[in-house]
User: Fold these one by one.
Assistant:
Number 1:
Amino acid sequence: MKSAVIVFPASNCDRDAKVALKQMTGKTPAMVWHQDSELPDVDLVVLPGGFSYGDYLRCGAMASQSAVMRSVKAHADKGGMVLGVCNGFQVLTESHMLPGALMRNAALKFVCKPVGLEVQETQSGFTRKYENGQRVTFPVAHGEGSYFADEDTLDRLEGENRVAFRYAKGENPNGSARNIAGILSEKRNVLGLMPHPERVVDDVLGGTDGRALFQSLIEALS
Amino acid sequence: MKITPEMVREHGLSDAEYARILELMGREPSFVELGIFSVMWSEHCSYKSTRFHLKKLPTKAPWVIQGPGENAGVIDIGDGDAAIFKMESHNHPSFIEPYQGAATGVGGIMRDVFTMGARPIAMMNALRFGEPGHPKTRHLVSGVVSGIGGYGNCMGVPTVGGEVNFHPSYNGNILVNAMCVGLARQDKIFLSAAKGAGNPVVYVGSKTGRDGIHGATMASAEFDDASEEKRPTVQVGDPFTEKLLLEACLELMATDAIIAIQDMGAAGLTSSSAEMGDKGGSGIELDLDKVPQRETNMTAYEMMLSESQERMLAVLKPGREAQAEAIFKKWELDFAVIGITTDTSRLVVKHKGKVEADMPITALSDAAPVYERPYTERKPQTGEPKYDKAKPVLASLKTILASPDMASRRWVWEQYDHTVMSDTAQVPGGDAAVVRIHGTNKALAITTDVTPRYCRPDPFEGGKQAVAEAWRNLTAVGALPLAVTDNLNYGNPQKPEIMWEIVAGIDGIGAACRALDFPVIGGNCSLYNETNGEGILPTPAIGAVGLMKDVTKMATVAFKRTGDVVILIGETKGHLGQSIYLREIEGKEEGASPKVDLAIEKKHGDFVRKLIEAGRVDTVHDISDGGLLVTIAEMAMPRGIGASIGIAGLPEAIPFWFGEDQARYVIAAPFAEAEKIVAEARAAFITVAELGKTGGDKITLDSKDSISVADLKAGFENWFPNFMAGEEIPVTN
């Protein structure tokens, strides 16, 4: 499985994504600079967490206009897999590769803590190694992670089983609509989620619940 | 322009200091030169009141690579790696504009660390606010915490811990001390000595604006009611640009183009150029027309004194400008050659074809005034405080855990990204943060500590205790304490009683650092923390770093199993003077501060650390604020595992459970291991007691009274969020 991590100037989970991919797949991902308009030949593109261009405008808004995102869209259009974590999820919604928007947390504060999630959909290349309904714990670390979409869109996401992760009962850290933590694209080859699976692949750091996501990708892409 | 006595005074210079300037210059200074003297001779930049005493601190050890005097201190952590760290205050600006003041404090200390070639890997902060009921406190807490988070989170450096205290003495002067720890290879450490003539001086980072002019001078004066009018001297932070600057500098540092590099912090272009020239023994000539400017028609005076953020000054090897420029262009940052090093040892500033300043650099450094200010000793408070012996112990425990200084700080640290970089092995809330050294099994333990309420009655013992507690916290997670950075926050040094607090505090720190083999490798002084003549509690904050060889052996405070034996290491005389118990339950701040026996401190700590290193113990908590019973409750709350404890033949319950005697730890271990530990401690003449066993969901005393751990936890966790949500808090005075 070959992968690439997109590096915006203020990405700050790019190294974490690289380390997790290296640890889980045995292969070092290509690190692709935001001004590059061409992607290397890869199976998976990761949009990491961070602040892309400072995010003084809406989070991810400027990144959605960057040179590299045209190639990421083309990659997804061809059926290539794209994983957007945290800021990466924001970039995906701003780029209209996923529906909805991520708004300021309901409590109006940045929040960093482990949260309980339920895996809601295992029919995807990102989640096939989880059990349906499995409870996992990933950390969140964001100021703008409140998922919002109109009712029709939310109904459609649920009807098409595209809600991959939901915050468990009482765990919603940001006021997201219908406790949504992560969603799939129509073709199920793009996943955006606010919690950080790449921060839970190592026992020393308090958990390994994120490993199955990478194991799913390895299986799906081999 | 003719320099008038008013101008001299407005620049914070005394008549004697101005006379000295005339002598050093051999003529009347220009207005720009006066401004340069003003900032370089300010307390903030020159340490003129403390330098004489700071020299007494121990700064050397075989593992110290760089002691005080550079942007940050450096220690050897083995395998060719170095830890680089420093703590610095941003008190005055944070009171005036809490969000930007705290944010730029974080940015400044990060630059101090990455300018030396290190990638920052952890941030800490030590915060002090006025009493919770003061009308400004909530606003300041909220602004400071979001400012620290706003900057650190964007930088992608985890903020892994710190401390927060409330006390009325900080009502008009809050303290915001930020610490940054970075990691570098020992053969890639960059210093600020601009050696050699004819080398290009380059400016990189943000453009220069009119913000922050005279910030260093503001930070060197007392506040009065009009201080908020000083808001224009607070700088505005831009963490995005800092992130670019960090990555660009590290990329440039991977080449060998740099001779010297220094961040533009307090006093901006002035101090960075003067310090680099001074350390390299060279002169520097600057052409201000080349400085990237954000505003039009800036004068030489404004440019030299601007404290615009996210800027660096570097001296390159000749001919390497294009290589450096390409890197900064890639990161879309300003890059300009603005000067050259010379062999004249003079700082020459040219602007629009005119020489605006031409002065000997030594006049700004070595010749800066040093004062041995007079001090008057106050008798330390003594005596045994009185207390009501009939008060129920467990009810008091509940009250204490839900009090402002003891309640959980979760509300604070959940606003900081503390897990980014995927190396945080111990998150905030324990004795020390633990951050793995990337790609290895080693880790750094980091803490900040001081108990200001001990420092007013007895500044010497208070200084000792701050160091001892930092050492103990590092030990309690299993780390070997290596070195210290100090952040000395005091009132006006021109008052003999305050000067005594400073001198005694430094002496106390020195005594403890010597006894514990714990050198001071850097630091910062923040004086004049006074408003309308009222000074803060003396607050010598200690930031400290230790090394763990095997992160998997790390200890944490949480009880982990039922049936573990709860063991108390260290002697409990029941010292209630200046304790949390006395303040929260009896409403008194009185008595003697606890004394630290440094030899015993070392003996007990070494004993505990060996147990952790050998993998024999994974549950350890040092005893500090609140005493033994609070410590046990803090071990019970994380996982909701209670304990049944007691001790036979206790003459007085309250001093035993709540006294703040030093050099103590609580550990919990399975029975067989516990028996061995107790026997070994006794054989080593260490006072040790078995208090009982873990289990159940209550804390039970002497098999009689009990209290639910969940109940305790509710009060402990809820105080901070309720307070910040606007719950009414009475004002004490």
Number 2:
Amino acid sequence: MSRFFRNAGDSDSSESSDSEEELLSSDDEAPIAKPAAPAGKMNMDRFLKGADSSSDSDSSDSEDSDDSDGEEGDEEEPQQAIRIMSAQEKRLVEMEATGKVMENALKINDWVAISNEFDKLVRMIQRQHNVSEPIPPFYVRTLISLENSVNNALAKEKEAKKKTNATNAKALTAMKQKIKKSVKEYEVDVNKYNADPEAFEREYTALVVRDAPAPPAPRVTVPGSAGADDDDQNGEFSTVIKGGKSMQFSADGILKNLQAVQEARGKKNTDRAEQIRILEKLLEVAVTSYQRIRVLLALVSSRFDYNSSVATHMPIELWLSAQREVDQLVAIIATNPAYAIQEITEDYDELKERVPEDPEEKDGIVRIRGSIISFVDRLDDEFTKSLQNIDPHGTEYIDRLKDEKVLYCTICRAQAFYENTNQDEPLGRVIMRRLEHIYSKPDAVVQALESTVEASDIKPSMRLASQGTTSGLIHALCVYLYKSGNSLLRTRAMLSHIYHHALHNDFHTARDMLLMSHLQESIHSADVATQILYNRTVVQLGLCAFRCGLIKEAQATLLDIFTTQRVKELLAQGVHQQRFQVLTPEQEKAEKQRQLPFHMHINTELLEAAFLVSSMLVEIPLLASIDSDELKRKAISKPFRRLLDFADRQVFTGPPESTRDHIMQASKALQDGEWEQCRDLIQSIKIWSLMPEAAAVKEMLAKRIQEQGLRTYLFTYAPHYSTLSLSLLSRTFSLPLRAVTSIVSKMIWNEELSASLDQSGGVVVFHRIELSRAQQLAQTIADKVGAMLEQNEKALDIKMGGTGGWGDRADGNKGEKRGEQTQERRGRGERTRGTRGGARGRGARFAQGLGNEMPSRTG
Amino acid sequence: MAEYDLTKRIMPYLDRHLSLPLLVHLSDTNLFAAQDVQIAQYELAKGTNMPDYAANLFSQIYPDQEVPAEFAQKRQNTMLTHQRLQDEAQAVLDVIENPDVAQALRQDKEQNLQYLKDNYNLTLDQIAALYHFGQFQYSYGNYSGAADYLYHFRVLSTDNDLNTSAQWGKLASDILSGKWDAALQELDTLRESIDSRSLPGPALNQLHSRTWLLHWSLFVYFNHPAGRTLLLETFLSPVYLNTIQTSCPWVLRYLAAAAILSRAPPPGATPRVRNALRDIIKVIQMEEYQYQDPVTAFLKELYVEFDFEAAQLQLGRAEQVLGDDFFLGEFSADFLDNARYLISEAYCRTHQKIDIRDLSERLNLSPDEGEKWIVNLIRESRMGADAKIDLDKNVIEIFRPAVPVYQTVIDKTRGLHLRTSGLGQAISRLGMGAQQGQAEAPAAAPAVAVR
């Protein structure tokens, strides 16, 4: 009410409210103050009309400002304190104001205005309802009188046709409908009122007084020391609200309120913050488990509702409280097995308090509609979303990242809950969520996450402590998902498992799993998120091969993604700028939503360095080995070749700056046989420091560079020597003599180098034949004809459908073999699960038959 | 060398009775404590219907203890069961061995059954008695008897599961009674039925059946005279190679050994056998992380690393391993011979001048022996004309004239004619009306023209 002082600058309105308040205070025993002074009312109306739109927001403000304002007022003039009205009273006053406006409009037959005002009134009543206050008789009275006047108006209109204008007539009919609806809604009250208005009002008064027993007392005993009174007042004031509520929060009061909140949910004018506040209060007073579950369910969902737009993320405080509440919910459900939350239940009475002992409940379990898994999903999604939106280089990001611990804990608790209740479908989903939090993390992080789970009171069966290692834990989680029926989860679990193996440098296992799963064949039809995961997995596999020193494998694995030139986009680590097409905003939004949070990124620069270095090690000796231009066009790694050509064209090369520069200059050094320079250049690339075991990797690279340097050298300079001392080679490339011999022998054996070793002299003897032009051309044409024939065969193969169907050729056999191989590989897919159990379970095949037969015969 | 012993890995894939010879062999090699091996033997025998054998083993292990009474009990039971099963089976056998019946029986099983039922009142259950008796005989060690009964059963029965089981049983019986030809035949039919079978959830079942077959077939292949070539043929077929890679990489040892043993394949061998070494080396490299032993390491050192010293070292160890191996024991000398040959071949191909003494050392031979060996080698091998021994300097010199260019061109284009005509035939077979043929025809034409 003090707000009125502020808002309405003119003394007139303040006067009016003053007088009104005086009235109120004098009339303390019946605080409804129904017979408001007509004059004052008129003023009020005008004022209200002016501040029509603001009234709504004001009233919501009022509660916050009430306290302080009240104090102010007290200090200025203690007398004023008497006039403090509860929020409830204020609403009443507003309602009456609208009533007045309606009356006025009625007089001039302005049905449009009436209709508007009535809407307002209904909304106010609705709010009244939300805080579960009784319906004031004023409303009932208005309803009745309106009904009458509407009927009258309609009757009149019938007599005098076409008298009213169209909008008015329309409003009138609308009004009729609305009134009808409202009357029906409050039928009981209306009837009661019609029967005995006096009694109805008395009843209401009694109710309200009982609701707020405290306020009158201090108001009367105001005269006293201001300070002490002030405190007292405040204390009392807050209890008014609380007391007022708790009075109604008897068992079914809560449920009624809950229903009101739920009905308001999703409507246009619902104040979400307000709803959350109401629910929080409800939670405080909820007594039974049933009530708490219901309130928590509603509360968590309304927290998630808080943000209507998809783009922004949930405020972090809200998220945290939602997370806590989900925890609470799980705790309640877990400790009370008599309650169950299910997505599909039979219909039940929302307003009835239910207990497990009730015979109506099946097997003594109260089933409540709701879904914990969707909460967990949503929590996790919101967490990701917030990470996507926070600047990853700020401290805020790190702070937010710390919340992953609690989130992980919640997920684990949910998992434990589903394990106990044997709900397979949500269990699979929740395990997948858990897996996604740990599969890409190094051991130390997983340990930190798991330690919080260890500390929690509800634990899932699969834990780090029980499994021993992180790999064990991930294995257990994945195996569960493999067994579950959901193929999407199976695919994702498989990919995560492979990723994890790759992360732990277990290249062979990871590769076998990837090949056996046959995901390459079906991944194109998978959803985008899974495709991203697949890309990540493949890339990680490539890095793993690189770390293990398997250069060729690394190069081959990473080649695919680098030829697309859209590495960032494919890994969902950045939006690709397409040159010739512009993304629609929707596409862009979808793209943004897909982005991985920064801490999950695979460093693309490191990736590129690994790829280019392995390409260098594969490509440079190859380049050196071929001498005709014809063959030169065939490149193993196009991206590398392109960069190398570009570097070749440069007139002047400065000292290397970027990673690429380093690698290009190193490649040139390697081509020239300067392996030491090449090694130094490669090792000075800064990005290696991001790779685990960087020192070992550098050492490995140095070794490879030595070997490939030797090969390149031999290829490049062989034409210029007729013999070359092995010991010289060994000194030049500081490799042991044995290694040099081995490399040279290998090259001779594979017919890459036409030479042979002279053991007694310790030299390589080169046998080089210069081909004449004609000979060279003859060879080329033979190759080409062969290639063409092969193309033809392939084309025919495709036309015929199926391999090896039309001729018994050696090549056809090869194709067949491949077919068989893939088929068998498919069988291998089961291996991870099968072999161990199989070895035992299959027992002795023949003996098994024996064992089965014997007892039945003898016994 | 105990760490290279494969008995423990192989046994889970063998039948109880098949494992017995393995254990007997182990007790001969002294790789493990005799006591342990005996206990293992006893544990195995306990589960069979050979109470006498088990009791015998028991008294050997625990000489100071009384033989448990259960053996006597079991013996009693066995005798009874034997009697009963024999009676049942005899009834059927009597009918079948009747010459009239033997003549009346045809290829069609259903019809046979009907015939037997109509004329001799034989039911399926009675025929199953044959199976049970055969099985029982097998379980107390009468393998040839078991083989007979199971054979008869298979001829008559229509029950697929029992038939498969009988097949396995027959194979085991043949193996154990040493009838290698019969076993080989049995092995082939079994392999066919495994490869053609499509059960529900076949992938895994098939994998398991194949793994079993691989292990059982080792008995046959290393005892049958032509076994090694057949082994290469079977094991190198894609499905079995995959099975090896997937579930039993240790079989690679036998594969590698067989490849080395059949270094010079008999004429008419398939390309698969001829190129066996090359394929196996690839697999060995691929599976190195899973399985490694001196035999595979030898091949790897020789053909991947070209480290002759290391290869020689591995050869020495491989010889030992082979000597201790149940299957490969007899082939040890043969293996060594062939391995030497491989080493010297590789050596000669990469070298121009070879010190004879050095080479002999590489081959673990004395210089004199080495010289003899090398002369033989030169005589046998293709390089005959190009290699000369210079006794003055004690070296061999190998002259390898470069392959003339026209030769390579001829090689490259040799197959083209055949392949092109293959293409042509395929297109004409595709039918005149087929539109697709037209697409190929112009494409194929230039290939022909160029030739």
